[in-house]
Amino acid sequence: MAVSKKVHGFISQSSWIRRMFEEGNILKKQHGAQNVFDFSLGNPSVNPPPEFKKALQQISREDLSGVHGYMSNAGYLETRESVAAFLRPLHGIPLGAEHVIMTCGAAGALNVIFKVLLDPGDEVLIPTPCFMEYRFYVDNANGNTLFVQTHDDFSLDLSAIREAISEKTKIVLINSPNNPTGRVYDNASIQGLSEILDVKSRTYGRNIYLISDEPYRDIVYDGVEVPSTLKVYRNSMTVSSYSKTLSLAGERIGYLAVNPALSHIDEVMAGLILYNRTLGFVNAPALMQRVIAKIQGVTVDVDEYRRKKDILCHGLASIGYEFSKPDGAFYLFPKSPIHDDIAFVRALQKRRILTVPGSGFGWPGYFRIAFCVDDATIVNSMKGFEEAFREGS
Amino acid sequence: MAVSKKVHGFISQSSWIRRMFEEGNILKKQHGAQNVFDFSLGNPSVNPPPEFKKALQQISREDLSGVHGYMSNAGYLETRESVAAFLRPLHGIPLGAEHVIMTCGAAGALNVIFKVLLDPGDEVLIPTPCFMEYRFYVDNANGNTLFVQTHDDFSLDLSAIREAISEKTKIVLINSPNNPTGRVYDNASIQGLSEILDVKSRTYGRNIYLISDEPYRDIVYDGVEVPSTLKVYRNSMTVSSYSKTLSLAGERIGYLAVNPALSHIDEVMAGLILYNRTLGFVNAPALMQRVIAKIQGVTVDVDEYRRKKDILCHGLASIGYEFSKPDGAFYLFPKSPIHDDIAFVRALQKRRILTVPGSGFGWPGYFRIAFCVDDATIVNSMKGFEEAFREGS
């Protein structure tokens, strides 16, 4: 064995999402891309908005000295100011540039936060279904992950969370709009969660942090609003990226924002900036920092995703699939027509339809469809979805 | 205490380099940038070459779908092929795209490698003087760092390395051309090191890996050649970035290249790709991957650095400073005129000259001058360098 013992184990249980994505690439080579219906990865098909393109071209033409060099590890001050100015009214708290750190996407931000807050053995509590890569991020910081199930409609089960919190709990991580369910945790849930964390922090005599991973905040449907965790809970941080709202997943640009009222905020910010550097990110990519500073508030056309969602929901409902309509994000998480979600995903794969089993999100018996794809992919996949459904039920 | 115990300790002993850089920013605000002589950070002043600008503008104008989205975690195949094609003749080994992973700079690459290779408590042996951030990277992977001094001329002390290797040693990390000394480890040293590692790997019955961090490979003077470690040692990897050779430090684009003959290479590559994702990098920034694929082999004008080096060396030698002329990189590492290098750096700082004490590189009694600055900064700093020297000696 060449790699470490832990890595050896992790390689074999690696991500379902990426496995399906890579298998899809092989299928596309065999059958042609147009004959493969790839719903595996949350890789936006909708192009970045024209404002992005314009800002990128403008910045590429500028002839300034040193603009591709190092800046402070927290990011350009102008970019942090621009992000803070956008978030301030959104969350209704006095966020300043000093509370924002530009990061290598939300994944980078979470790795930094876990590294700074967790002592070995500390627990991070995460409601399921959820994006399973969180486990790796927690493990990177020598912490342990504790999963707590949501209700059947994927809303937060506050009693279960209250029960699960112990003296080991350091962080509760939520992701809303949620991957894979599309559920937005409502205001009452966030208020309730906040009260639980207040009580439990007092009970155990140490702060429990609420981290909200919100890359899909701007992609919501039917007037749903995403409540602010920063507004209701003092020891909170929000993490986000431009991967989904600007379709820039490959550019690795995101941020973390810390509640100005957070306890010991100076030490925490110093730790976050230090680890943004020493985990090897050093700083968020310079050019993209300059681009996004110019286009705060701009998003992809959410109507595009609404249309895709409607086509998909209508098609699957007609066939007989059961699912909750998503409040946001670009995922649908239907019930598998047969008990074994992995077997069902394999059945879909035989029809060149790539999805991800619910088992890959801590929720067997369901499967995830990432509908951030061309409309034609959705429409043309319906025959296969129907065949697999008939075969299974 | 809000942050973890370890982070609490690390914040206070954080990097000398960054501390001087941040103090320099304050001085610049007080006295104006032109009155501060900032030699603190290896942040290239020489602009990226025109080929970079051209490639960036061309790519920014292209209207392709999905080019800012996720790609395989190892990077674009075209980029990996382009890097491999450049490295193949340089190292004289049959490197292919499958041996290259695009990373978030060399710092990202090293964090990934350490995480994959180190079991808790494994040791990484590093010759000093060296870039001290390596310590953090090793610690991130729960490994321990063992420093071994070089000879007085900063060449590798092979006897000391042989003595220091134990059953705990998993990795030997070298950096050549070296930060902070500018020394290039010569061919005989690399051959000798390789033989020691072969013998010790057999003695302890497990592979010791040789990792070579080479971001300054293209910046060498007076016909010096940087020997290839990949060519002479089987279990080796090379790490590099475009931070220095293309002046893109803020863009976080680099790579790691693995010797095709490495033991258990399939498992090691799988581990490296997995951790390139799960440490939060996910992939190297997409746009920069596409840019550098087009301009392999292009570098900044090294003559610029040669001229700066000559102005600096000539000036400091005239004053009476003692130093070895650097073989490469853009650092000079003179002896401090007084025993206490930190006191001497403070004395320079009073003259608004920012350097970094040798203590920050595991080598007290010396100090580092990063001469990747405007010629005027070097020329105008000489008065201050002279005053501090006279005062100290």
Which characteristics define this entry?
homodimer; seven-stranded mixed sheet; three-stranded antiparallel sheet; alpha/beta
Structural write-up:
In chain A, α9 links the parallel β6 and β7. The first copy, chain A, is globular. In chain A, α5 crosses α6 and α5 crosses α10. Chain A starts with a helix and ends with a helix. With 393 residues, chain A is an alpha/beta fold. The longest helix of chain A has 18 residues. The interface between A and B is large, with 83 and 83 residues.
Regarding quaternary structure, how should these chains be classified? homodimer
Question: What are the segments of chain A in which pLDDT stays under 50 over at least 5 consecutive residues?
Answer: none
Structural class of chain A: alpha/beta
Q: Could you say which overall geometry of chain A the principal axes of the C-alpha atoms support?
A: globular
Average residue pLDDT of chain A: 95
